[in-house]
Amino acid sequence: MAAIIDSPRNSPRNWQEHDPRHLLDREAPRYTSYPSAHHFKPLSSDIHADWLRGLSSGGSIGLYIHVPYCEQMCWFCGCNTQITRRYDAIAAYVDQLVAEIAHVSRQIAMRPYVHSLHFGGGSPGLLQAKDMELLFDVLRDRFVFLADAEISIELDPRRVTPDMARLYAGLGFNRVSLGLQDTDPQVQKAINRIQPMPVVRASVDALREAGIKGLGLDLIYGLPFQDEAAFGATLADALSLHPDRLSGFSHAHVPWVRKHQRLIDATALPDAAHKLILFERMTETLTTAGYTPIGIDHFACAEDGLAVALKHRRLRRNFMGYTDQPNDRLLAFGASAISEFDEGLAQNASQSATYQRLIREGGLATARGWAYREDDRVRKAVIAELMCYFEADIGDILVRHGMAFNALDAELERLKPLEALGVVECQCRVVRLKSPLKMLIRNVCAVFDRYMEQPDGQARYSRVA
After folding, report:
1. What is the pLDDT of residue 15?
2. In whole angstroms, what is the distance from residue 62 CA to residue 137 CA?
3. Taking residues 224-229, what's their average pLDDT?
4. How far, in Å, CA of 442 to CA of 82, rounded?
5. Where are the beta strands (DSSP E) in 377-441?
């Protein structure tokens, strides 16, 4: 890749309007859904229940379990989680997860086939063996898991023991995502997450010895005190573990949303220019090592399902990132979990106490969401194509959705400034990203986002870089 940044001194405040890098300081959704969760409105549990009853036996679904607890707060974290050292609080939460799974499944006229199950958090590795087994008992009782279903979990390497690794393998987990983030001691101290590399390596060895072969590592660039040399060492550490997938997420510093991020020394954060150096180093290092770039922040071995899905244009993007799963239908359980249906999106109450109270009352924990309207599905399809493949045939998408060939011509016209900057090209209604700054695809998607311009006073997103 050609050099993107000439010098660390080439900071955003010096970028001119004719330089596309000034767009990196703008805010835009990450587009793991459309519309972004920022725009969700109150949604009744009756509508949610209707969507559940409308699920048909045609096709499979994904399942997601959210565990909103950690023993220690990582200061960079943007997830919905809370700190607890009392396992009885987690056990009580598991009881309500079981009740929610049972209640949701009763709304569905059949036992759906499941193509994937993912445990996220928080730290789902906090779940004790008896509670993990309890959840699997109820899940397998209420749903039919396909033989090749992907069963995955996000784990903190510091909590993986040989016994727990064997438990996960015995329950059917075949993919694990480990939070590596950064291996430099100074960076780890600055984000309140100390995990020496020998600890990480031991967790990887335990998982592989237990028979779990699918290994992903999560990295973050844009953390305090990260520089090119130190981040290069982190990349080398990551590659030494031979994962089949890596994600390299841009740190979203949003202290107005996640107040604990105020504990990070903001003066130690790299600016957009430095983050681009880190992005370039990551892309060069991982592609040289044989990994295929996937979207804006994933990398996969050539034989991995993500790389195969990209090659055959079967890649998808959802709340967990990029996926090779066959469709977008998702049933999500737990506080703040977002389910996705053909008709729209339904999110549970975010606060754990509120979520548990609603489930104890015998209903759904629905708090808000979005019923698709007008041309939402078309715009969702355009944004999905752009986020996955960095191009979209607007005319073809409109025809497939039964809309006029020129229905989005106003948006194509609004792309002209980005064309002038060399960010995109538009030929015969086909939009393609031209810039090596892949994260700018978020700016391109925002042009097709009907709700970006609505001044509701709350829709503050993370910076593009």
Report:
1. 63
2. 17
3. 94
4. 29
5. 391-393, 424-427, 430-433
pLDDT tens digit sequence for 386-444: 999 999 999 999 999 999 999 999 999 999 999 999 999 999 999 999 999 999 999 99
Q: What are phi and psi of 426, to 5 degrees?
A: -125, 115
What are the pLDDT digits (tens) for 69-92? Answer: 999 888 778 777 888 989 999 999
pLDDT at residue 9, rounded to an integer: 36
* Sequence-distant (≥ 6) Cβ neighbours of residue 365 within 8 angstroms: 45, 100, 335, 348, 349, 354, 355, 358, 359
Could you tell me if 187 and 224 are in contact, meaning their C-beta atoms sit under 8 angstroms apart?
A: yes
Contact criterion met (CB below 8 Å) for 329 and 62: yes
Q: Which H or E run contains 228?
A: helix 228-240
| Alpha-carbon span 414 to 423, nearest angstrom | 13
Please classify residue 97 by burial: count the beta carbons closer than 10 Å to its beta carbon, then call 0-12 exposed, 13-18 middle and 19+ buried: buried
**Residue 6 pLDDT:** 38
CA distance 97 to 65: 8
Q: What is the distance between the alpha carbons of residues 172 and 353, in angstroms, rounded to a whole number?
A: 30
Nearest in space to 109 (alpha carbons), one of 60, 63, 55: 55
Structure tokens at 164: 């727990």
Which of 451, 438, 142 is CA-nearest to residue 299? 438
Q: Quick one: tokens of 320?
A: 């967990």
Contact 180, 218 (CB under 8 A): yes
pLDDT averaged over every residue in the chain: 92
Query: What is the helix (H) or strand (E) element at residue 339, kind and residue range?
Result: strand 338-340
Is residue 211 predicted with pLDDT exceeding 70?
A: yes
3-class secondary structure, 138:
helix
Q: pLDDT tens, 46-57?
A: 999 999 999 987
Which residues, 6+ apart, have CB-to-CB distance to 74 below 8 Å? 181, 191, 192, 193
Tokens of 318: 């959802």
Strand 82-83 with 113-121, pairing: unpaired
What whole-number distance in Å separates Cα of residue 288 and Cα of residue 379?
35
How many beta carbons lie within 10 A of that of residue 340, not counting itself? 23
Give the pLDDT of residue 14.
59
CA-nearest of 239, 130, 247, 88 to 178 is 247
Closest CA to 173 of 191, 200, 195, 154: 154
More reliable by pLDDT, 18 or 158: 158
The two three-digit tokens of residue 391, written as one number: 């191009």
Q: In what order do the strands lie in the sheet with 391-393?
A: 391-393, 430-433, 424-427
